[in-house]
Design goal:
- The complex is a heterodimer of chains A (about 300) and B (about 350).
- Chain A is an all-alpha fold.
- Chain A is globular, with a radius of gyration of 24 Å.
- In chain A, about 75% of the residues lie in helices and about 0% in strands.
- In chain A, helix 9 runs antiparallel to helix 10.
- Chain A contains 15 helices and no strands.
- The two termini of chain A are about 20 Å apart.
- In chain B, the strands form 2 sheets. Chain B has an 8-stranded mixed sheet with strand order 6-7-8-3-9-10-12-11, sandwiched between helices. In chain B, strands 2-1-4-5 form a 4-stranded antiparallel sheet.
- Among the domains of chain B are: about 70 residues, no CATH class; about 100 residues, no CATH class.
- Chain B is an alpha/beta fold and about 350 residues long.
- In chain B, about 35% of the residues lie in helices and about 20% in strands.
- The chains are: A mainly alpha (about 300), B alpha/beta (about 350).
- The interface between A and B is medium-sized, with 23 and 32 residues.
């Protein structure tokens, strides 16, 4: 718990240093426009607090955050960063959780079957598919998916395309339809990696003595594989899934950008384009929070899944 | 065939051969092994690691089936051949009529499932009508039967929460869940402390007598066999080289390999001053086994003829229940063992049987 807080402090300091000390663009310049006078620029700097010494800026930021839960205000829109994050969170959560379901539903059966039928066409097909899934970048895969299936530009206009995201609370049906392509695209890489990992784990587990014991008891092969084998092989995968979920909740920048989903990742992307430092800080801190929480959840979850860890 | 192979046997293995196709060639792990066990009796199978004893057992259980496994012979359980039984039939018999206890209970029990669940599963696999609760009750009963204290609580323990001896008791309880007619115990005490070993062997004997089941006890430890087995088969390089009633094997062994095993283990009844003598060399390759008698490269009594002639397992003239695969004349074997039993070294025993002028050891 303590290391989590320390880590958050470090992350905030690091992002602060990267963007304020070594800025990629001058936020005042971006706000003032191309031909602004030095006086205007100075005025904007003063109003944003950018003229104060950097340690003072950082101190103000941290004290506001800790004592008022205040993440500052966007340079670009003027909205509070906190409200921006809360607005964008549902889309990212929808995207992440749906993708997790898809990739686990694909990876678990594929991993198990290719382990059991090692060397057969199922295995080879999975291996080839996994290679494709891993090597295809999400933004490329996303664009291909849009060109093939999006209802505006697609060759076969089957599904809502980019920018069609609707909040669940507005229209669950449209929400679901709009997320099908992003879910599949985001899940593809993970499904490939997870299927390969599970295959490796399963092959190892199926040669364990306790699997032989399960067979010696006269259990059906299905039960041997899906209960005794999978139960042991899936545990490391659950850990990994926890960490990946934490990572994605911090914003799936590429997927959200390609499909124009108003999530944390998209917010982060726009903030970088606009040199909107408070928003960048906010999204990065939120992502760090998710990763840290995911780590804690995974540690607790692992103890639940593996009783041997509980004892230690 | 010995007396035990009579019609009364519940398990009889006939000319079992098991080979594994590997990149380096066919590993003939079991090469023509036959034995039989009657209800209430125990056959001990003794040999070094790599002698094929475990492969013979797992093959009998149908646990070594696979695309690279070459199996021939017959494994008859109450007259039904397990080697060509359909997978479904084999599944129905495994854990029900014939069960197995493995060497290391820590790796042989599922680490993530409760002991009671693993035992209950063995019950329900063969009695689908049994409810979960009834299976659990049966698991408690079985744990009590194998003398695990506080069985009612231990039933919910995970394997790592039990001691080594407890784990092996739980493993035995699981194997006996459906009161099998044959129990194969593969090195059941090897992973345990010496004091616990004796308890587990006593438990196995008690359960064998209570159930009247036939038991095959596989071990590298002649001491384990001496305590428990009625009959002993000594395996070397995939074959049985000596087989006899247990008492006779220890009193009058007839194979140089058995002598080697006996002389390489400490015995209370050994003559004072008799040193332990290890068997020289290593177990032979099973891809290219030695020519002639397979033991000849390690045998202190080897003669020229033994390098080319392969001895058959044949009964002794005066004890038909005692069979040996050795080319030495029976009279000489008798003299050699008499020397060894009184503490002579293998070299001294060889000198006693070596006729002057014979080509001898090369």
């Amino acid at each position: 718990m303590l290391w989590g807080i320390v880590l958050l402090a470090l992350v905030s300091l690091l992002t602060f240093v990267i963007f304020y000390v070594l800025p990629s663009a001058d936020p005042a310049q971006l706000r003032a426009g191309r031909d602004a006078s030095p006086a205007t620029l100075h005025q904007i700097r003063v109003s944003l607090g950018l003229n104060r010494p950097l340690p003072a800026q950082y101190w103000t930021y941290v004290t506001h955050l800790v004592f008022h839960a205040d993440l500052g205000y966007s340079y670009f829109s003027g909205a509070s960063v906190g409200s921006l994050l809360i607005d964008r969170l549902p889309a990212t959560i929808s995207l992440t959780l749906g993708a997790v379901v898809v990739w686990l539903l694909v990876a678990v059966p594929l991993g198990v079957i290719s382990a059991v039928r090692r060397g057969t066409w199922v295995d080879k097909l999975t291996t080839g598919g996994a290679l494709l899934g891993v090597s295809a970048p999400v933004y490329w895969l996303g664009l291909v998916a849009l060109y093939l299936f999006a209802d505006d530009i697609g060759k076969w206009p089957l599904l809502p395309g980019a920018g069609s995201y609707v909040p669940f609370t507005d229209n669950p049906g449209k929400w679901f339809a709009s997320l099908i392509l992003p879910w599949l695209v985001l899940a593809s890489t993970f499904a490939a990696v997870y299927a390969r990992l599970l295959r490796g784990n399963m092959i190892e587990v199926l040669s364990e003595d306790y699997v032989r014991t399960a067979r010696a008891k006269g259990l059906s092969e299905r039960r041997v594989v899906w209960r005794h084998g999978l139960r042991a092989a899936v545990t490391p995968l659950v850990t990994l899934a926890g960490l990946d979920i934490g990572l994605l909740l911090g914003g799936a920048v590429l997927t959200e950008t390609v499909f124009d989903i108003p999530g944390i990742g998209r917010l982060n992307y726009d903030a970088i384009i606009h040199a909107d430092y408070p928003v960048i800080q906010g999204t990065v801190l939120l992502a760090a929070c998710f990763v840290i929480v995911a780590n804690i959840v995974v540690d607790v979850g692992y103890a639940y899944l593996d009783p041997r860890v509980r004892a230690a | 065939m010995s007396a035990a192979d009579a019609a009364g046997a519940v398990l009889s293995v006939e000319d079992l051969r098991v080979g594994f196709d590997t990149r380096d060639g066919l590993v003939q792990a079991v090469d023509g092994v036959s034995f039989a066990v009657a209800p209430g009796r125990t056959l001990g199978i003794v040999g070094e690691s790599g002698s094929g004893k475990t492969v013979a057992a797992t093959t009998a259980m149908g646990l070594s089936r696979g695309p690279r496994v070459r199996v021939s012979g017959r494994v008859l359980l109450d007259g039904e051949d397990l080697l060509d039984a359909a997978p479904q039939r084999l599944r129905a018999l495994r854990g029900d009529a014939i069960a197995m206890v493995f060497q290391d209970p820590l790796s042989a029990l599922h680490p993530l499932l409760r002991v009671g669940a693993q035992i209950g599963e063995a019950v329900r696999a063969h009695r689908p009508g049994v409810s979960r609760a009834a299976a659990r009750a049966r698991a408690v009963e079985l744990l009590e039967w194998v003398a695990i204290p506080n069985a009612g609580q231990r039933v919910d323990a995970y394997p790592h929460e039990l001691s080594g001896g407890m784990r092996q008791r739980a493993m035995i309880a699981m194997a006996l869940a459906n009161e099998p007619r044959v129990l194969i115990a593969d090195e059941p005490t090897t992973a345990l402390d010496v004091t616990v070993q004796a308890q587990i062997l006593a438990l196995l004997r008690r359960l064998r007598d209570e159930l009247g089941m036939a038991m095959v006890l596989i071990t590298h430890d002649l001491g384990v066999v001496a305590e428990t087995a009625d009959e002993v088969a000594v395996m070397y390089a995939g074959r049985i080289v000596e087989q006899s009633p247990a008492g006779e094997l220890f009193a009058a062994p007839r194979h140089p390999y058995t002598w080697g095993l006996l002389r390489s283990m400490p015995r209370v009844d050994a003559p004072a001053g008799a040193a332990l003598v290890p068997i020289p060399g290593r177990p032979p390759s099973l891809i290219h086994p030695p020519s002639g008698c397979r033991f000849h490269p390690r045998c202190p009594y080897v003669r020229e003829r033994h390098r080319s002639e392969d001895p058959a397992l044949e009964p002794l003239p005066d004890a038909p229940g005692h069979r040996v695969a050795c080319l030495l004349p029976e009279a000489e074997r008798r003299v050699a063992w008499a020397r060894l039993a009184t503490g002579a070294t293998p070299a001294q025993a060889r000198a006693a049987i070596e006729p002057a002028g014979e080509e001898g050891r090369v």
